[in-house]
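Data deposition worksheet. Section B asks for the primary sequence of the deposited chain exactly as it was used as input, without tags or linkers unless they were present during the calculation. Section C holds the resulting structure in token form. Section D is free text for depositor observations; keep each observation to a single sentence. Incomplete worksheets are returned to the depositor.
Section A, Depositor: J.P.
Section B:
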Amino acid sequence: MTETAVYAAGGVVWRVVDGKLRVLLIHRTRYRDVTLPKGKVDPGEMLAETAVREIFEETGIRVALGMAIGVSRYRLPSKRTKIVHYWSAEATDAAIRASAFVPNKEIAAIEWVTAKKARSRLSYPVDVEILENFLRLVDEGVLRTFPIIVLRHAKALAREEWDGEDAARPLAPRGKKQANSIVGPLLAFGARKLVSSPAVRCMKTVTPLAAALGRKVEKTSLISQDAWEDGESDARTIIGQRVRARKAAVLCSHGPVLPDILSELALATGTLRGSYLGSASALEPGAFSVVHLSVENPGSGIVAIETHIPKV
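Section C:
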């Protein structure tokens, strides 16, 4: 019988100082090694949530995740396989000032170094590979990105279980759990602006996130299912606003509307359409796709898409 894998997540935390790129290394006390911030998934966590929590716990720096930059796999002394997912994560000046890091029994020190020094100081080849993946983004000029997060509403009561108008159909008990479970992962990507179909099942999906952020949800029928069924939906207008804003946003809508939203994102950014759009829009209830766009030039195309599925 094979042992189950151990899952973990972390990041290449970076900043630009006087025009020069610096990345963050951690010196671990117990292992006497130099590595990237990372740690094991807590029960019920999604990977993106783990990455942000572990980076904060090990460095004192709160980050929002950028693009996924790779997965490392290696064998532990226990013979189990450890699988670590990594993201790029910018450390803002404000986050660094707010850090209360002090050396402790786990982390002896943290150190900002050039990419060249990071290559030579990292203790493990798997970490160097992740760093090289990150540096390829730098070379491609897509270091700074912002996400447009396309979210399908959480599990709602089935139509046959509901007598009222479809737009008033509420979340099922499982859907309420999903709405709460995705708050951490959505915050991990820096979600700030919330835009939703006015349908109850969409609004209730983003209500826990809005409460966590202390923000109101912008309701718009332009991405509602009723408007879509009547041929009156207009994802293009909403996408245009969000791309021009260049800020992290969550768009909560319905299964039938999601392909239009992804299609308009491709059009607005000059991206070739392909089967990847279908995969990114074919979401389960409560799942979301993070579409990463370049801050400097959002019209240069979709840089990456990743999809996350709730565990409940």
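Section D:
The mean pLDDT is 95.
DSSP finds eleven helices and 13 strands in the chain.
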